[in-house]
From TrEMBL:
<feature type="transmembrane region" description="Helical">
    <location>
        <begin position="60"/>
        <end position="84"/>
    </location>
</feature>
<keyword id="KW-0812">Transmembrane</keyword>
<feature type="transmembrane region" description="Helical">
    <location>
        <begin position="151"/>
        <end position="172"/>
    </location>
</feature>
<feature type="transmembrane region" description="Helical">
    <location>
        <begin position="12"/>
        <end position="29"/>
    </location>
</feature>
<feature type="transmembrane region" description="Helical">
    <location>
        <begin position="178"/>
        <end position="195"/>
    </location>
</feature>
<feature type="transmembrane region" description="Helical">
    <location>
        <begin position="36"/>
        <end position="54"/>
    </location>
</feature>
<feature type="transmembrane region" description="Helical">
    <location>
        <begin position="122"/>
        <end position="139"/>
    </location>
</feature>
<comment type="similarity">
    <text>Belongs to the UPF0126 family.</text>
</comment>
<keyword id="KW-0472">Membrane</keyword>
<keyword id="KW-1003">Cell membrane</keyword>
<dbReference type="Pfam" id="PF03458">
    <property type="entry name" value="Gly_transporter"/>
</dbReference>
<protein>
    <submittedName>
        <fullName>Trimeric intracellular cation channel family protein</fullName>
    </submittedName>
</protein>
<feature type="transmembrane region" description="Helical">
    <location>
        <begin position="91"/>
        <end position="110"/>
    </location>
</feature>
<feature type="domain" description="Glycine transporter">
    <location>
        <begin position="98"/>
        <end position="172"/>
    </location>
</feature>
<feature type="domain" description="Glycine transporter">
    <location>
        <begin position="13"/>
        <end position="86"/>
    </location>
</feature>
<dbReference type="InterPro" id="IPR005115">
    <property type="entry name" value="Gly_transporter"/>
</dbReference>
<dbReference type="GO" id="GO:0005886">
    <property type="term" value="C:plasma membrane"/>
</dbReference>
Length: 231
């Protein structure tokens, strides 16, 4: 498997992630009863937003989404698919969840690998990987006036991206980037799908809160009345 060109594998999986997330963005546009322009806007933001943030932060030239027409074309295809097909029912929802989970791992892995390839250390590479994976969905949610789901109240999602990024760092350092891509995709997908099914969430406000004891109340001192003050 390591004999394959890692760059070719990264580009292929990256485009699959663009398509899946573009369809998810279009599905939200359908929920909000938007027109075709709304479908295209949310699809592009959802499918390309994280990658564009990644490339801007890495400062390696123009974002790939602007220089490679395959990316924008794939996002627009996803918008059209979401516009023409109404994903309803249990199985359609499951397909969207699995597609989102797979793209989460692949985007975290590609973002981490790109950060490492330009010389960043492991910690900022992890940050870039997570931003690549969740940035598009965050921009999409903010565009429609929603609090991004990664900020809490949802099952494990950014955590799956972080796990995938950590695995990619380890295997990239071991000169196995292709295996890193595969492991990251599978592990992130399994974690997010199982977390969604079982309702796993990170602790929220109050879950781990330490309550300090209240200070004892001291009695108010009584001031002696002067001779001119009444009783």
């Amino acid at each position: 498997m390591d004999r394959l060109d890692p760059q070719l594998v990264f580009d292929t999986v990256d485009l699959l992630g663009v398509l899946a997330n573009a369809i998810l963005g279009g599905a939200i546009a359908r929920q909000l009863k938007m027109d075709l322009i709304g479908f295209m806007f949310l699809a592009v933001m959802s499918g390309l937003g994280g990658g564009m943030l990644r490339d801007v932060l890495l400062q390696v030239g123009f974002p790939v989404a602007l220089t490679n027409p395959a990316y924008l074309g794939t996002a627009l295809v996803g918008a059209v698919v979401a516009f023409l097909l109404h994903f309803r029912g249990k199985w359609a929802l499951r397909v969207l969840v699995v597609a989102d989970s797979l793209s989460l791992g692949c985007w975290a892995a590609t973002g981490t690998a790109k950060a490492l390839s330009v010389g960043l250390s492991w910690l900022p590479a992890l940050m870039i990987g997570v931003i690549t994976a969740v940035g598009g969905g965050m921009i999409r949610d903010m565009s429609v006036g929603r609090v991004p789901q990664i900020f809490g109240g949802n099952t494990l999602y950014a955590t799956g991206a972080l796990v995938a990024s950590i695995e990619m760092v380890i295997l990239y350092r071991m000169t196995h980037p292709t295996w890193g891509m595969a492991v990251a995709i599978v592990s992130a997908a399994l974690l997010t799908v199982v977390a969604r099914r079982r309702g796993w969430r990170l602790p929220g406000v109050g879950s781990l809160e330490v309550r300090l004891p209240k200070a004892p109340a001291f009695p108010k001192s009584r001031r002696r009345k002067g001779p001119t003050e009444g009783a």
